[in-house]
Amino acid sequence: MSDELLRMLELYRQGFNCSQILLSLGLETRGYSNPDLVRAMSGLGGGLGFSGKTCGALIGGVCLLGLYAGRGTTAERENDRFLLMVEELVQWFEDETGRTYGGIDCADIIGERLAYKTAGSQCANIISSTYARVKEILISNGIDPAG
């Protein structure tokens, strides 16, 4: 089992949701800690606050791309390829997860467990594959995930 997967499981056991796990991994890879950002991500798990809407792993993945390629200050510029990276991730997620579960909404993926605010085992696989795909997209666009 990889160190990344072990860290994901550790964060999950500590009660973090999919979006928080993805951003935590990205921050840690860069050598950063940002509890405010991780806290802000808490509303995205379970498909936007456990409403069952768009999977929090996809939303977290898009936010992770933004961490690397978005704009954070007036002195910065958004990476010219940022929106193309987002489009690539969304298309991949729709193809992979959407095809497997019949959609990309959290309700499609975890079904009735959504009512109990619990993730299924498939969520670990989705988080892991989304994190790997984000890293691939970053690297293919000349961005080093380590910062």
From TrEMBL:
It comes from the Bacteria. SUPFAM superfamilies: Multiheme cytochromes. InterPro entries: CGCAxxGCC_motif, Multihaem_cyt_sf. It holds the Pfam family C_GCAxxG_C_C. This is C_GCAxxG_C_C family probable redox protein.
